[in-house]
Each structure stands twice: as C-alpha cells, then as structure tokens.
Specification:
This protein has 145 residues and is of the alpha+beta class. The protein has 3 helices and 4 strands. The chain has one domain (16-144). The protein has a 4-stranded antiparallel beta sheet with strand order 1-4-2-3. The termini are far apart.
Length: 145
C-alpha cells in the first residue's frame, strides 16, 4: 500500500524500466513516426524520478540468425543509432518529433525485420534512464534467447 502511495506522489516509478514509444514500422514510407502520447506518458511514469537523467534513444532493429549448424536460433537485436539526454517532458516531445523525422522509414527496406531481404532501416524510439546500449550486450546470450 505504501509503495502505491509513493508512486502516486511520483517519488518512485510505478514499474521501473525502459519503454519503447514508437516504431518506424508503424508509419508509411518516408513519413515521420506516429508517436502515441499515451505511450510517452506511460514511459515517463516508468522512468526513475528526477533527478535521474532522461534519454530519448533510437535503435535500429534487426534479427540475427545463428545458422542451422548452431541449432537454428534467432535473436532480436538493437543497435544504438542516437541518444539524446533531455531535461523536461517538453524536451522529450521535441526530441521525439525531431528524431522521428530524421529516422523516417526507409522505402528500400519496407520488408521488415522478419524478411530475409531486410537490410536495415527499421528503428525504435525508447525512453530510458541511460544512454543507448547494444542489445543483447553479451553475444553469448544470443544462444539462450
């Protein structure tokens, strides 16, 4: 009960962690990403409270295949493309809009990450308390995902 009240007063996040707020796959080719205000609001509530930093991170989505000789495993990966530290919620919106125009969906790669002809160009936009990092960070972990 105490945890719920402290979360309501914004002294701690309701559920901590990073939140993806948009994907380029959700938009048309060469169009800015449609950013859902409810995802952004929920993402901000999940972050650690001020004075923890807020980062708007952009990752390129991909899938890696281990090959049939290694058991035929697939893993989703994220490669950091941009990380921007912001101060206020207004700055979050400004950063998201600017980055959505900069990382518009690539018409040449409209197949999506599930296609064998995918060659980059699908991005995800995240709200996090740290700069963008590779995922998974440990290549050995790919075999167990």
């Amino acid at each position: 009960m105490l945890k719920m009240f402290s979360a309501l007063w914004r002294t701690e996040p309701i559920a901590s962690g990073s939140t993806v707020v948009a994907y380029t796959a959700d938009g048309e080719n060469h169009q800015p990403v449609a950013i859902d205000r409810y995802r952004v609001r929920d993402g901000l509530l999940r972050l650690a409270p001020w004075p923890a930093p807020i980062f708007v991170n952009v990752y390129e989505e991909d899938k890696q295949y281990g090959g049939s000789e290694e058991g035929g495993w697939w893993v989703s990966t994220r490669t950091p493309k941009h990380s921007e530290q912001v101060v206020s919620t207004g700055d979050v919106w400004q950063a998201l809009w600017g980055l959505s125009e900069r990382f518009a969906r690539n018409v040449a790669n409209s197949q999506g990450t599930s296609s064998v002809v995918y060659d980059g160009g699908e991005y995800s936009f995240w709200l996090e308390n740290q700069p963008a990092e590779f995922y998974p960070s440990d290549p050995e972990a790919w075999r167990y995902s």
